[in-house]
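Worked Example 4.2. Consider the chain below.
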Amino acid sequence: YDAAEVERVFDRNALLFELRHRFTDLDGKRALIHLSAQPEATQRELCTIANAWQVAQRRRHATTMRREGLDLTASTHRWYAPAVLRGARPTLLMVSPFAVFPPAHGGARRIAELAQRLATRFDLMLLSDERSAHSLASEAGFAAFRSVHLVQGRSDRAGETQSLQARLHSHANAALRAELRRLQRVHRPDAVQIEFMEAALLAEERIGTRPFVLDLHDVYLDGGDSDAEQRRALGAFDRLLVCSNEDASWLDPLRATLVPNAAQDRMDAYQPSADTPELLFMGPFRYAPNVDGLRAFLSQVWPALRARHPALTLTVLAGDGAAADLRREPALAPAGVTVIDRFVDPAPYLARATLTLNPQREIRGSALKVAESLLAGRVCVSTEAGARGYGADSGPGLVRVANVAAMGDAIDALLRDRMRRHAIEAAGVDVRRRLGWAHSVDALCAVYR
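Applying the procedure from the previous section yields the following structure tokens:
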């Protein structure tokens, strides 16, 4: 086709889209003016009885959907999968107060991994805050969803510290609430799954009797003053999901189901760790316990460990936004430490690592980084707090020590004894079923059944 014909078809299709979907204020009179100015071939193709009937049908449907809240003008804030991907399966709406794609922190990784597998059993929709944190790199993750809807509702700034009570209200903000109501009216999901305790007050926006489920990445109940408000919010849900039995124990008598954190199984590509001493900490800085644990490790363990192993290096996968933390606190990257301040695929870093670390000193939920290490065939040296949620069935690859200060001797011994380290790594094959995502997805689907 020559350039003029290509341009004509583009113009014809744009006009046809407008006629069908009423995208702008094109009325009947303006439509006639536009048509009369089109080439003869375009007039011949569009001005048929069959096309007029189709346009009328589509236009009436579009008008109805717009009246119910479908906003086609917000094109940069919506992502719709092709209609052929939609089936007659139940529709599940997942709602997150934090950006999910690309998955730059453990909570986002959990949502992404569960969604990828749930997509074979549900028509999934995603509603997420932090619209500005999404980019073209996010779209690969959107493929699991029938549609994605993004808002920018929170006013808190990066690095700002808020009480739990303040977070409960700022994360269930007006923009997220309004969009949740709209999606229930327009798309009528069969169930709604809210992510994170911070968004628990969104249950106040439930329309009708559809089930509302809360996925508690962390349980913050601790016997303190905020417990009463938390329990009121938790009581509005039909079911609570937890990452660890330790979290579940705080929730009695509320009904909770364990959907454990897991990891992508990389054991098929396993190669024994190299003798080059390289440590890896997969700890996004946006999660405060990661920064606290790294700070403690660098002050209490790193100097003596480097003295014993002068060639030792540590790579920290700190995620987007970590550069600001490094400017405020350059001690987080001393000699021998490299901080990666962007989202990256951890696979090549795991392949190069001799060991992985988890120096967290206090967490709720459980750390995905532990499972990711074990299912990549890498020993993880962790504090008892960081190993929370992983019982004896995690195998010998999880080396637990009492606290951060005790990590040095455990790391030193594993660096020196290659045969022992390789034997422990290979044992990761035995935990594949227990630590893989398939087990977690089965538990979640049982809830919805």
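The two ends are 54 Å apart (CA to CA). Residues 49-68 form the longest helix (20 residues). Compare this with Example 4.1 before moving on.
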